[in-house]
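Schema walk-through. Below, the input block comes first and the output block second. Nothing else is stored per chain. Lengths vary across the set, and this one has 224 residues.
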Amino acid sequence: MAKAHELVEDFNDNLSDTTRWWVFGDAREVNRRLELPQASSTANSYAGYTAKATYDLTGTAIWVELVRAPRMGQARLRAYLSEGNELSIGLVDGLLRCEQQVGSAYLVFLTLPYDPEAHRWLRIRERNGTIFWETSADAGTWTTLYSNPAPFSVTAISPGIFTGTYQAVASPGTAIFDNLNAQETSRLRRVEERRLSARGVRVEAAELAAERRHEEHANNNDEV
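--- output ---
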């Protein structure tokens, strides 16, 4: 069985690959990212991706970049074993939480205020029978928020990303994810996009100036 980190998705093709993912809700790949909008009119509204295949998490990790957090509701990275059994790290109503669910019973290990810079990257890692819930600002240096013995076997889990509301919320917003088990590319991409955008503005301005009608300039003999 493939290791969990081998499931790599950068969302750059702007297409939901339904051969790899169970796609639910209004999940969509746009702007080379995964956008998960949340409805405000229903009590339970969820969107996201869950891998169709299973992967071995032992000795490795899954991670994702949370580019934008929703205003309310949930936005999580999870290692899904079966209905009612999973590990997760992410947001619930603006708070970062490290959790596990066993037999449909939730256990929240840690809750702290969400920092969009320090907690930009979320990771679930396993080593020697212990699960580590971790965050990072740059996907280079990781901070372990909590660790606990694995509550079940993680040799066949399905990585997933999801967002949602468990009650009606006015304007909960959209969660944006990028770089699942992939190297950090979005910030470099934003710099490149700004550079190309600035060039495009200059080119457009020059073309507009060249197309303007210019009056004929008659020689009034000033030089003479």
